[in-house]
């Protein structure tokens, strides 16, 4: 016969203070993950915090980049799409013309 499961957090490996802070739903989720992974709660919480840190850096650009993007968008705000396209085309053509003048299309390294 099996013994009935105790609802105390002492058997689950989660300290009672942590269980009280997390609440019932998060404590049950943490217990389930501990059971599936076999890892202690400290390791799981460290891993979760590390994942959040990495993802927050990926999702939110630095203030300097954010400002640069905003300034770039402000520059083109009142410019028609056709005019934007024409200016971009001229810039690309000028860049390729400069590349050709240096002899870059022969596969030789630049001698400058």
- Low-confidence segments: 1-10
The tally of helices reads 5
What proportion strand? under 5%
Spell the H/E element sequence: HHHHH
- Integer average pLDDT: 78
Helix/strand-derived class?
A: mainly alpha
**Main sheet properties:** none
Helix content: 55-70%
What does this protein look like?
This protein has 112 residues and is mostly helical. Helix content is 66%, strand content 0%. It contains five helices and no strands. It has helices at 16-22, 24-37, 41-59, 63-75, 81-101. 2% of the residues are buried.
Describe how the helices and strands are arranged.
Blueprint: H1 16-22, H2 24-37, H3 41-59, H4 63-75, H5 81-101
Helix pairs in contact: 1-2
List keywords for this structure.
elongated; 0% strand; 112 residues; mainly alpha; disordered N terminus; 2 domains; 66% helix; single chain; 5 helices
Summarize the structure.
The chain has helices at residues 16-22, 24-37, 41-59, 63-75, 81-101. The protein is mainly alpha-helical. The longest helix is centred in the C-terminal third of the chain and has 21 residues, at 81-101.
């Amino acid at each position: 016969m099996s013994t009935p499961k105790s609802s105390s957090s002492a058997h689950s490996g989660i300290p009672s203070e942590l269980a009280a802070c997390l609440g019932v739903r998060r404590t049950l989720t943490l217990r389930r993950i501990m059971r599936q992974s076999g890892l202690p709660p400290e390791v799981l919480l460290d891993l979760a915090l590390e994942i959040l840190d990495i993802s927050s850096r990926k999702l939110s650009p630095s203030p300097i980049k954010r400002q640069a993007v905003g300034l770039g968008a402000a520059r083109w705000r009142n410019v028609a799409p056709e005019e934007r396209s024409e200016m971009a085309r001229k810039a690309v053509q000028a860049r390729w013309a400069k590349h050709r003048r240096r002899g870059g299309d022969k596969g030789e390294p630049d001698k400058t």
